[in-house]
């Protein structure tokens, strides 16, 4: 896809209105066509304007509009983003402006605050920029202050080199994962890391701290998600995590990596169907979220609660799962875009309980296009949402809508970016298509036999948890049994 198309798919309805206002403020002439072009591109119908303007004028206008859209989105992100990293960037830019206007003391105070935050979050590249700026205007510092600045600069440079070595190592590991996925063989992560760390001269302390372990688990989790083979994910890093917890590295400086590391470990266990182990690491995650004045508690509560609710649901505790999700969603602490995962989880639980009106009400809350969800949430999340939506409309017998929705999803499955998905997703969609066209097929012994012959299953522990859950709905419908109990039975056998 083009840059313009990618940017357009990221826009919410509010963003679209905001960008039109942004263009209106910038336009110095009333006959500027950029707003018309923007609206035509949104409707996927730019051919008329291209014919009116001519190819050259059209391309120039489109490039200018795309540049404006880049500026608008970048500014909006910086304006709305409240992370420590963006706050450091703001402070760095402001201090440079103050230095340029000879407001040296104020600039140095702001730069010092930015240094403290950047050091706390291990942002060595930003620290490098901070020290470069501080050195440029260090002429009024005392001897001791200047000496300390040089020492900090040198120490950070060493940290930056070590981090660069780790980044190179992880790029090699990532490429190895991609290669292994294509060949379909599991990877011995511990052995691979040992070789890569030797190649880049990375010590054990550097290679197995909270930050580096978090990067490793990210790779393992991505590998499991893309290959649908979580059962083969090497989780040797759990023992490394146990070794450094409670040690000298277990500080506020590494807290965010510690929390996210525990979440990903819990998620991998969940996808391996080991719900008890997942809950164990979620409780460890909650403990870390409560440390240091709950610094990251709010930022990570949605992830923690959603995964815990899913684990409880598959442990036959669906009522407790719904209570957790209700409390989170009804708290008014988060925007809906922050709550898309828990809302989808809640909708799925209601589907399993045959609470169709509740599920329908939740489905109606999703306002964005498939393209937007794919960009923001990923293709797997989008497919899970679409399957849940299709099943819901089969339950309500919305035949006309189902036909177009299934065709749309089939087109999505033929695109190159999802060509590596489990072929059974396509098979399952074909079966749903038949049911949507003729619901009576659920009672047909011939159709039941077709389902049994169509779906080829791996050993239970190797199956994707969400694929099994959707199949459980079909199995329950074919056998006229309770959907939730059928789901639980599939995971317990």
Structure report:
- The radius of gyration is 26 Å and the shape is globular.
- 75% of the residues lie in helices and 0% in strands.
- It has helices spanning 3-9, 13-26, 34-42, 47-53, 55-80, 84-100, 104-120, 124-136, 143-183, 189-199, 204-207, 210-227, 237-244, 255-271, 275-289, 291-294, 297-314, 318-329, 340-352, 356-363, 370-377, 379-395, 399-414, 423-437, 445-454, 465-479, 483-492.
- The chain starts with a helix and ends with a helix.
- Helix 17 runs antiparallel to helix 18.
- 28% of the residues are buried.
- It is mostly helical and 493 residues long.
- The chain contains 27 helices and no strands.
Query: What kind of sheet is the major sheet?
Result: none
Helix content: over 70%
Please state the CA-atom Rg, rounded to the nearest Å.
26 Å
Please, what is the average pLDDT?
A: 87
Strand content: under 5%
Helix/sheet category: mainly alpha
Shape: globular
Order of H and E elements: HHHHHHHHHHHHHHHHHHHHHHHHHHH
- Supply the number of helical segments: 27
| N→C terminal distance | 44 Å
Question: What ranges have pLDDT less than 50 throughout 5 or more consecutive residues?
Answer: none
Strands, total number: 0
Give me a quick take on this structure:
The protein is an all-alpha fold. It is built from 27 helices and no strands. The protein has helices at 3-9, 13-26, 34-42, 47-53, 55-80, 84-100, 104-120, 124-136, 143-183, 189-199, 204-207, 210-227, 237-244, 255-271, 275-289, 291-294, 297-314, 318-329, 340-352, 356-363, 370-377, 379-395, 399-414, 423-437, 445-454, 465-479, 483-492.
């Amino acid at each position: 896809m083009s840059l313009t198309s990618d940017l357009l798919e990221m826009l919410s309805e509010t963003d679209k209105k905001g960008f039109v206002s942004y263009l209106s403020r910038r336009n110095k002439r009333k006959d500027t066509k950029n707003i018309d072009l923007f609206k035509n591109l949104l409707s996927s119908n730019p051919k008329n304007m291209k014919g009116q303007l001519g190819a050259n004028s059209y391309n120039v206008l489109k490039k200018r509009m795309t540049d404006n859209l880049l500026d608008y989105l970048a500014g909006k992100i910086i304006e709305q983003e409240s992370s420590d990293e963006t706050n450091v960037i703001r402070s760095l830019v402001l201090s440079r402006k103050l230095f340029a206007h000879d407001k040296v003391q104020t600039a140095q105070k702001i730069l010092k605050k930015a240094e403290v935050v950047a050091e706390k979050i291990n942002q060595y590249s930003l620290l490098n920029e901070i020290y470069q700026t501080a050195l440029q205007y260090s002429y009024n510092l005392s001897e001791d202050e200047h000496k300390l600045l040089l020492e900090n600069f040198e120490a950070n440079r060493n940290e930056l080199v070590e981090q660069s070595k780790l980044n190179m190592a992880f790029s090699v590991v990532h490429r190895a994962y991609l290669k292994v996925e294509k060949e379909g063989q599991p990877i011995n992560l511990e052995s691979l890391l040992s070789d890569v760390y030797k190649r880049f001269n990375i010590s054990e302390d550097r290679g197995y701290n909270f930050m580096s372990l978090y990067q490793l688990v990210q790779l393992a989790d991505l590998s499991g998600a893309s290959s649908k083979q979580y059962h083969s994910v090497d989780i040797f890093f759990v023992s490394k995590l146990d070794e450094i917890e409670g040690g000298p590295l277990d500080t506020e400086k590494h807290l965010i990596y510690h929390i996210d590391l525990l979440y990903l470990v819990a998620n991998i266990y969940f996808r391996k169907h080991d719900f008890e182990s997942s809950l164990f690491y979620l409780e460890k995650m909650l403990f870390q979220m409560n440390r240091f004045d709950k610094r990251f508690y709010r930022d990570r509560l949605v992830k923690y609660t959603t995964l815990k609710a899913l684990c409880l649901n598959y442990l036959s505790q669906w009522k407790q799962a719904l209570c957790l999700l209700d409390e989170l969603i009804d708290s008014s602490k988060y925007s809906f875009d922050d709550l898309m995962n828990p809302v989808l989880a809640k909708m799925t639980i209601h589907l399993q309980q045959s609470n169709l009106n509740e599920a329908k009400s939740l489905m109606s809350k999703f306002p964005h296009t498939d393209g937007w969800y794919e960009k923001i949430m990923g293709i797997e999340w989008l497919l899970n949402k679409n399957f849940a939506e299709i099943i819901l409309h089969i339950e309500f017998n919305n035949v006309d809508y189902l036909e177009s929705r299934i065709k749309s999803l089939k087109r999505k499955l033929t695109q190159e970016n999802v060509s590596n998905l489990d072929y059974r997703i396509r098979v399952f969609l074909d079966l749903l298509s038949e049911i949507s066209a003729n619901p009576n097929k659920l009672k047909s012994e011939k159709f039941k036999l077709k389902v049994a012959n169509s779906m080829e299953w791996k050993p239970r522990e190797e199956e994707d948890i969400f694929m099994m859950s959707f199949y459980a709905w079909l199995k329950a419908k074919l056998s006229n049994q309770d959907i939730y109990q059928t789901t639980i039975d599939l995971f317990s056998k």
